[in-house]
Amino acid sequence: MPMATRTTTRRTPGFRCAECGWTTAKWVGRCGECQAWGTVSETGAPTAARTTAATAVTPAQRIGEVDLTRAAARPTGVAEFDRVLGGGLVPGGVVLVAGEPGVGKSTLLLDVAARAARSGSEVLYISGEESAAQVRTRAERISAMADTLYLAAETDLATVLGHVEARSPGLLVVDSVQTIASADVEGQAGNVSQVREVTGSLIAAAKSRGVAVLLVGHVTKDGSIAGPRLLEHLVDVVIQFEGDRHSGLRLVRAVKNRFGPTDEVGCFELTDSGITGLADPSGLFLSTRDHAVPGTCVTVTLEGRRPLVAEVQALVATSTLPSPRRTSSGLDASRLAMIIAVLDKRAGAPVASRDIFAATVGGVRITEPAADLAIVCAVASSVVDKPLAPDVVAFGEVGLAGEVRRVTGLDRRLAEAARLGFRHALVPAGSLTGTVVPAGLRAVEVADVPRAIEAMGRLAGGRSTSAAAVGTV
After folding, report:
1. Domains of the chain: which residue ranges?
2. Confidence class of residue 169 from pLDDT cuts 50, 70 and 90?
3. Which residues are annotated as a binding site for ATP?
4. What pLDDT is stored for residue 1 in this prediction?
5. What residues contact residue 316 under an 8 Å CB cut-off, 6+ apart?
6. Given pLDDT bands bounded at 50, 70 and 90, which one contains residue 36?
7. Which CATH class is domain 71-279?
8. Which segment of this protein is annotated as the motif RadA KNRFG motif (predicted)?
9. Quick one: CA torsion of 419, 424, 429, 432, rounded to 10 degrees?
10. How are beta strands 237-243 and 149-153 bridged, if at all?
C-alpha cells in the first residue's frame, strides 16, 4: 500500500491577485504580474510546506521496455497539417493552435475533425464562441459533415468534462480555451487562473483517456499567445497559424513539438469553400507576365526546411520630397533601409535621394536575410531601367561592408530553382564547395554587391547593368 503523505502548511496574512494568483506581503493597487488594477485582496498565503515520500503505484521501467505504440501518430487526412505535426495526432497529445482572428483556425480544425470522424473515430467539437447551428453552417459550407462528429456549445469546464466522459471521443476539439471557465476558480473566462485550470483539466483528461485534444488559442496584439506562458509549457505541441487577411495564403508552423520536428511548415489556401493544403505553393509568389519588367528578381526562401520561390519587386522613382519615401510590403523595412545604404555607399548607386518602394508577390512575408541579394538586384534593375533575365534567381545575405555572405540550405534552394526551370543562380562566393549543383542550372558566385550587379548585367545579355553604369544613372 502507498505510504501516507502528510503536508504541513503554515499560513500568514498576505494579499493575492484574483486574476493571475500573484501574491504579495502587502496590499498594492495594481498587480505586479498581470498589471490588472483593483484585483489584489487580502488572503492567507502559504509560506512553507513539506511533503513526505510515497510508494509509487507504477514502478519505473527500463527505457527499452517502454511501449512505443502509445506515442504512434495517426494521420489526420490533411497532409499539410500532418507535415507540421510530425505525422499526425498522438493519442493523449494536446495540441495548441494559435493565430489571429479570422485567419482560419476554426475552419481547419473543423475539417480535421470531420476527416477523423469519417475514418471511424468519434469526435467531440466544443464551441465556446459560436452556437452549434453556426458551426453546422460552416461545416456544410466546407463539406465537413460526418455522422460521428458531435457538437456542443459550452463554456463551463465541468460540463465539457461531462461531455468527454459521456462520449469517450477519440478526438476532442475545444474552440477556444480562453472561452471556457471553471466555477471553482475566481475570475472571468480567459484570465490567467482560468486558462491554467482549464488547460490543466483538459490535459489530465487527455492523458488518462488517451484522447487527442486540439485547443484553439487567442493571440494578443503583439502576436503572442494569450494567457500565461505556462500554457505553452503544459501542452505537447504549439502551432502558430499565420497569414495576411488580404491574401488567401496561410502558413502553419510548429513552435514546439514533442512528437516531431519544429522546422516544417504547412501551406494552405483559404477560400469561400474551405481551406485546402498546397503541396507546391511556389507558383503563388510569382507574377504572371508575358515579358520581362525592370525592378524584379526571384529568390528562394526557406520556411523551416521547405524551399519556397518568391519574387521581389522594387520601384525607384524621382522624389519631390525633402525626405525620400521608403515603403515596403512583405519585407523587413529596417533591412531594406540597410540595403539601400549599402547600394549608395558601396556601389555608388544614386538611391539616397529617390523614392524606393519594395514588395513581394502573393502576400508572402520574407524575413530571412537570404533575400538580401534579390532586393539588391531588383533595386539596381529599377535604377537602370533594365530587366533582369527571367531565368535567374539570387540568394545571399548582404553585410554593411557590401560583402555577400553564405546562406543555409543552399542545396535545397538550388534544387527548387532547378525544378521550376531557372537556369542561372547568383550565390555567395565560396558557398559551392561540397554542394551539388543540379543539372541544367549554372551557379555564379559573387563576393560583394558590385560584382553581383556586374554578374546581373552579364546574365541580362549586356554590360549596361554594371556597377559603374548603376552609379552613373
Report:
1. 7-50, 71-279, 284-472
2. very high
3. 99-106
4. 43
5. 295, 351, 354, 355, 356, 379, 382, 383
6. confident
7. alpha beta
8. 256-260
9. 40
10. unpaired
Question: Grid coordinates standing for 140?
Answer: 456544410
User: Is CATH 3.30.230.10 what the domain over 284-472 is classified as, yes or no?
Assistant: yes
The answer to whether 5 and 54 have CB atoms below 8 angstroms apart is yes
pTM of the model: 0.77
Given this model, what pLDDT does residue 470 score?
60
Q: How far apart are CA 215 and CA 205, in angstroms?
A: 13
Cell of residue 193, nine digits: 487562473
Query: Rounded to 10 degrees, what is the CA torsion of 384, 389, 395, 401?
Result: -30
Segment 359-378 mean pLDDT: 92
Question: pLDDT > 90: what percent of the chain?
Answer: 61
Long-range contacts of 412-418 (CB under 8 A, 24+ apart): 412/302, 412/305, 412/307, 413/300, 413/302, 413/307, 413/370, 414/300, 414/438, 414/441, 414/443, 415/307, 416/282, 416/300, 416/307, 416/308, 416/309, 417/300, 417/309, 417/393, 417/441
The string of pLDDT tens digits covering residues 406-428 is 999 999 999 999 999 999 999 99
pLDDT at 45 over 50: no
Residue 4 has pLDDT above 70, yes or no: no
